[in-house]
Amino acid sequence: MRRLKVTLEYDGANFAGFQKQSGAGIRTVQGILEETLARLTGEETPVIGAGRTDSGVHALGQVVHFETGSSIPAERFCRALNGKLPPDIAALDAEPVDASFHARYSALGKKYRYLVFNSRKPLVLWRNHCCRFPESLEMAAVKETAAILAGEHDFRAFSAAGSGVKSTVRRLFSLDAEQQEEWISITAVANGFLYKMMRLLVGTLLAAGSGKLSPDQVKQILERGERGRGGATAPPQGLYLVQVFYSKGEFS
Amino acid sequence: MRRLKVTLEYDGANFAGFQKQSGAGIRTVQGILEETLARLTGEETPVIGAGRTDSGVHALGQVVHFETGSSIPAERFCRALNGKLPPDIAALDAEPVDASFHARYSALGKKYRYLVFNSRKPLVLWRNHCCRFPESLEMAAVKETAAILAGEHDFRAFSAAGSGVKSTVRRLFSLDAEQQEEWISITAVANGFLYKMMRLLVGTLLAAGSGKLSPDQVKQILERGERGRGGATAPPQGLYLVQVFYSKGEFS
Fold first, then answer.
1. Residues 6 or more apart from A204 whose CB is under 8 A from it?
2. Across the A/B interface, how many CB contacts are shorter than 8 Å?
3. Inter-residue contact B111 to B50 (CB < 8 Å)
């Protein structure tokens, strides 16, 4: 047996999230991967993911690990797996790792990106891959608010209740917003993200950019840990798990 | 009764093309529009489109016209229609036109764009919205070949047989290819496009860029009108009908 680390891209539109769920016919990333590995290798092997993306959330670089006794060399594993995976998920890279590697616990950080279509026009072609925000945005206010949120803080106010984590302190290495015509991309790199944290941060930046919250109000919400006082939770279809970092050198 | 000109965006992925087809359960743009107009206005009115996009082809600015006795003002027609249309199609604009306007016959030209993902990486998130071309491309050869194809020519070699048009001469005002990282967009403006012409032009540019055809060979194919000698017909999912022009001033 050996352990493989596999990097995945998937289109979240037709998945009920990453995590396998009981109940027939619920299509999850983990479920599809385990089924496909069973068809490829004949083995029933649990797949462990770096992060549990929600229903509708996409990944450009989700990382998983699993054990396999298969003789397929790591460099051919991607192609073999992709030959059997459905078209909305693909393995981008596979490499052997030692038994101490864990997709979730070995991760030092993650990068998420959120894509906003800032327009009053209907959103048709990209409706499953971004979120439309029709109100006009003041990018200076978005950036000022992002600068307040970046850094090491107790992000309790920007987490959904009930995730049961011990600490809600996270280090947000960077939170950047870029505008190109009607498109705004918001990118965050952190040592970890609380449940729904990225979507709550995005909702808060959009509230600040559209004048519903001032940067000072956001600062207060952050400092006081006031759940439910920030912006709305941005919808899942605009969110992408871009990269999972396993060494300090990867952060940039 | 009055005539309305409506500009549409649609995602071609789940449509069997623009043109209504006989047979139950075949989902077409024209069919969905006529059904939706019937529900909105109570009228059975034929919808005439500027171009018959193939199955899988998208539109950012398809134009249609139809007659209606509805009292909904033109400026509110889009919103009313969009309230009843499925999420993969939307009206972007509606304006009253006089009875001499015809979406197809009044058109002076069209702009199409084709999106290529030039990479050996799997294509997952954008699989329905571009075409993957894994071979390396020499952009200089693509541009040199595009310059040969631009202009007024008999494009017989770049048309699918059986469309029954009288003349295969068209004026290709421009044919441009732009590269940005792994993405190549090919944009064409012409006074008209023969059946599958854009996809045949794109296939030929890709063949030239990957060294399978020389610019001189393409010139010969064009001059001799040799069907089937150019590149392969590029697949439909990378193609977008961007704009239909009805006045000379719109060309740019």
1. A145, A149, A158, A213, A218, A221, A230, A231
2. 44
3. no
**Interchain CB distance below 8 Å, A124 and B82:** no
Cα–Cα distance, B44 to A71 (Å, whole number): 63
CA distance A123 to chain B (A): 8
Task: Report pLDDT digits (tens) over A78-126.
Answer: 999 999 999 999 999 999 999 999 999 999 999 999 999 999 999 999 9
SS3 B243: strand
Query: What is the pLDDT averaged over residues B230-252?
Result: 92
The complex's ipTM works out to 0.88
Ranges for all domains in chain A classified under CATH 3.30.70.580: 2-97
Confidence class for position B252, pLDDT limits 50, 70, 90: low
Domain B2-97 of CATH type 3.30.2010.30: no
Interface contact flag, A92 B121, Cβ < 8 Å: yes
CATH architecture of residue range(s) A109-247: 2-Layer Sandwich (3.30)
| B155-201 residue pLDDT tens | 999 998 877 788 999 999 999 999 999 999 999 999 999 999 999 99
- pTM of the predicted model, to two decimals? 0.92
The verdict on domain B109-246 having CATH code 3.100.10.10 is: no
Q: Is A54 a catalytic residue?
A: yes
Q: In this complex, is the C-beta atom of B127 within 8 Å of any C-beta atom belonging to chain A?
A: yes
Q: Which residues contact A197 (CB under 8 A, 6 or more apart)?
A: A155, A158, A159, A170, A190
